[in-house]
Amino acid sequence: MIVLEMRPMPAPRPRVTKFGTYNDPRYTAYKQAVALQCRRYFKEPISGAVKMELVFQFKTPKSWSKKRQAEAIRRGYHTQKPDGDNLEKGIKDALNGIAYIDDAQVAEVNKVKVWGDRDMILIDISSLEKQKEGGDEE
Q1: Which CATH number fits domain 2-136: 3.30.1330.70, 3.40.50.1100, 3.20.20.140, 3.40.50.10190?
Q2: Could you report the per-residue pLDDT of 68-87, keeping only the tens digit for each?
Q3: What is the DSSP letter of 13?
């Protein structure tokens, strides 16, 4: 399990101009930070099908009352923007070439967005081939 102490950031739409296509520099910095922190967990990229489990935790806004913050954390699920698909895309893009050769290998994804007392991203990546092989041995 990889724990990243940072605010989850969704993948924005690239900006297209007559001079080319550009990503927001903040998004590029976010992907680089995720990649840098995750690099130490992988000696080499996984080949074959990959399973990814993601938890995106968002800190409750300071502008909310203590009661509202506690209620949001108790309820758990974060049902506001950004949407989970764009958050997932940011992580998948950042881990290309680090956790797996290409994000097209990600065959199974479980993700959840929750409220918490701090911003955090939890990532668990495993090979589906190893799980399948392990299941056959029983």
Answers
A1: 3.30.1330.70
A2: 999 999 999 999 999 999 99
A3: P
Task: Output phi, psi for 124, to 5 deg.
Answer: -130, 120
| pTM (whole model) above 0.70 | yes
Q: Give alpha helix (H) positions in 12-65.
A: 25-38
pLDDT per residue as tens digits for the range 46-69: 999 999 999 999 999 999 999 999
Q: How far is CA 109 from the centre of its chain?
A: 10
Question: Which pLDDT does position 94 carry in this prediction?
Answer: 95
| Residue 124 structure tokens | 């668990």
**H helix or E strand, kind and range, residue 136:** helix 128-136
